[in-house]
Amino acid sequence: MSSEKPHRTFSLPVLGDVSRRTAMKAVGATIGVAAFGRAILPLAELKDRVTLQEFLQKHYKELTPQEKATIFERLESETKAQYGAAVSIRDPPPIPGVRFGYAINLSVCNGNGRCAEACHRENNHDRATSQSYIRIFEMPRGTMDLEKGRSTYDHVVPAPDSFYLPVQCFQCENPPCVSVCPVEATWQEPDGIVVVDYNWCIGCRYCQAACPYHARRFNWQQPEVPADEINPDQGYLSNRIRPQGAMEKCHFCLHRTREGRLPACLEACPTGARIFGNLLDPESEIRWVLANKRVFVLKEELGTRPTLFYFFD
Amino acid sequence: MTTLPHTPGPKPTHWVSYPRFIWQSLVLATDGSFMFYAWMTLLTAVALVGANAWAHQVAHGMIVTNMTDHVSWGLYIANFTFAVGVAAGGVMMVIPAYLYHDRRMHDVVILGELLAIAAIVMCLLFVTVDLGRPDRFWHIIPGLGRFNFPVSMLTWDVIVLNGYLLLNLHICGYLLYIRYLGRTPDPRWYVPFIMISIVWAISIHTVTAFLYSGLGGRPFWNSALLAPRFLASAFVSGPAFLIITMLVITRVAGSAKMDFKGPTRTLIQIVRITILINLLMVASELFTEFYTGSAHVAHARYLFFGLHGYHGLVPWIWTAILCNVAAAVLFLHPAIMRSVRWLVVACVLAFIGVWIEKGMGLIIPGFIPSTLHEIVEYAPSLTEWKITAGIWAFGLMIYTVALKIALPIFRGDVNFSRR
Amino acid sequence: MPRRLNTSGCLLLIAVSAAPGVIGGCSEQRPGAGDRAVAASHQGDETGRFPVHLNLPVGPPRVETGQRDHLDRPVTVSCVACHSLQAPDRVARSGDDLQQFHQDLQFVHGNLACLSCHNPLNYSALRLADGTEVEYASVMTLCGQCHPRQSNDYVHGAHGGMTGYWDLTRGPRSRRICIDCHDPHAPAFPHMIPTFKSRDRFLSPQSPH
Description:
The complex is a heterotrimer.
Chain A: E1 10-12, E2 16-18, H1 20-39, H2 46-49, H3 52-56, H4 65-83, E3 88-90, E4 100-105, H5 114-122, E5 135-140, E6 162-167, H6 176-180, E7 186-188, E8 194-196, H7 206-210, E9 216-218, E10 233-235, E11 247-249, H8 254-257, H9 264-268, E12 274-278, H10 285-292, E13 295-296, E14 308-311
Parallel strand pairs in A: 3-10, 4-14
Antiparallel strand pairs in A: 1-2, 4-12, 5-6, 7-8, 9-11, 13-14
Chain B: H1 14-30, H2 34-60, H3 75-89, H4 91-99, H5 103-130, H6 153-181, H7 187-213, H8 226-253, H9 261-292, H10 298-304, H11 314-332, H12 340-358, H13 382-411
Helix pairs in contact in B: 1-13, 2-13, 3-5, 3-7, 3-8, 3-12, 4-5, 4-7, 5-6, 5-13, 6-7, 7-8, 8-9, 8-12, 9-11, 11-12
Chain C: E1 14-16, H1 35-43, E2 52-54, E3 62-68, E4 74-78, H2 80-83, H3 114-117, E5 126-127, E6 133-134, H4 139-146, H5 148-155, E7 162-164, E8 173-175, H6 178-181
Helix pairs in contact in C: 4-5
């Protein structure tokens, strides 16, 4: 761009005569570009957060074990730098021959919310928003109409004539959230768990619109957790601290369950309402429940085929 | 199409004439009256405010919007949906011109195609600002990232929107360049693309409707009527905008060499039908919802009457209904053909009516109540308004500049031999 | 929280080989064996499975006297300390029916009398409905005679909850027993106060912007 003062007109090859007006336009354009640069200056804050390695990081399924190790190391050091907590990030693979199933006994659940709290702590959720993958509805007896339920109840439980419906990701066999993702950032693992690559998600939130169960949560900002409250036992596809602008969801505590341990919400349940296990093992507790209790799923008519079941007994 | 005097002499090569065409376009785009500069400065200012707000949003996170896990799409996607409709609506000039060989429409059809370009650019921007991680944009580029085609409707939308943008860029670019050279356009180089673009225009809005109507968990959208409704309303908002554009051009630039009367008349006649079809379809949906009275009516009830004491969208939707009905009445009244004032009022009402009905009146109530029937209301934050205004300003800038280039070339005021 | 019943104050974790038949295996108690030690001792069992620890009592409960010894430890006495001298009251159905002791005991458990479960022949043990003596450690057998459905659910891992491993080939599991959650004298599960509410951004009522 030329900003020198023109003498009436002067010539440039190809372009022809340049008039005072043209020069003024050039000045205007320069100011415009400068103003644009100033306007988007806040983006400069990003350079600390989005490193080149992070920008170029490949999809989870394309990573070699070495690349994974490098990435986990980077994420660990980032957590150390940003949160002041020493954590270790692992990536336990699905166990062959295992497909997870979950059941909740609604006759026993009393809505005390310990499961939601355990999820909150286990999964390093944002403290300020008391985020959790579990949401519990207090329902009046005699209806399954969620419109009559309330998740904001705050009194001694169980309330008379109420039952309680904890809702979390049902790890559907036919998950609508996976189909809609434009970049394959979310998929179903062989053990049935629907996971998210938090470093691949572009944050379009289409999956959140597609999920019929309000199971997905978006990181509207970087989650904040005090260093001493961070759970250092972390999985890449599960409870590591999620980046801002990415989607997350319940993963059946895969960093625990893929090592044979029970999910945090089950261990925390004081009423023993939760039953977890391997759907492919005919001797498992979950199979006994499916065979002996009259189980049902939420919104069965949608064809999502949840693998978290409810029952009354 | 006005016949241009064919200049004798040897044809210049494209290596010379095309850069000159670009340069000339640049000159045309930046030359104008005081009003033009004032208008462009205003739009630039608004666009910059939007760019600044977006930069803040990217830096601090989507927390600066008022969207929530319950209402996870808001003003951006509402405007995206509407802008797709405007882009598709531009085709309502193309169909009479090329399918019905309306000569007068032929001369001004470029207005519709340029509108499509500007509107698609807006669509792409609205989607981009809605992304939580725009820095990972490359993940959606086929070949580079992982493009979940054909399962995800969003990938279809990426294809049809960008395809429509390319089609219209080609058609407009080709016609303008050839006109600039003073030659007669070769039908082989643009008529097939025009024909494709007609089908494509239908497809962009159909696919956009499928984005929503394919979601079983959202009963408010999960209706087979959504795509037809989208098209009908698009064929209201697009032509309404074009009618106003032609009135403005006549006012600002004069219509000495371009006949807008015939095309305006044609568009009015189109809107007369489409606005009624749209209202009929809205009424049909509402009847089904309310008369059935199933649990699915909660969204419509929230939208129109409020639910459990929450009625944030009630004023919006009744404004939209009033605008649409009033616009329909005005369009049907014979005076609309004579009175410019009433025509402007009718077009503005129809445009606003559809903007609300398809945006705040369609996207937001899909989320309220939520899939677990919780009610969390939504009203856009200041940041969202700034960014939205910025994108509209940018879209209008593109359209203004495009018209500034296209009109003189089409009128034959500027061409290669007469520079 | 579920109230831990004051049984003997020295509850021990007892190992039982596998989940099915858990109750029947309760007699396999090993007083004094620590959690870790039991797990280790069972690691090499022929099924290749880790044990399930049940939170069973090792013996009869002791009653606090309210007095303290020279080391400031609470003085407790065994049931038989009094009951060996006392004739059994066969009609008493609650603390209100008693002239002395246990008068503050809240008893809300169906239509039972004290001696429905307590054994008048041996107050250090319990008895089944048919009079068979049963140790405190086998209290779940006693509960199960009236609550077979819950008992059956428990045996199949569908009642009472657990911690540890879902996959017993990878690690052990701990389970509460009936009286951990249900006070045998007032077995209704206690009311609780929700201590945690997951919130959403701007969950209603909406904050002004």
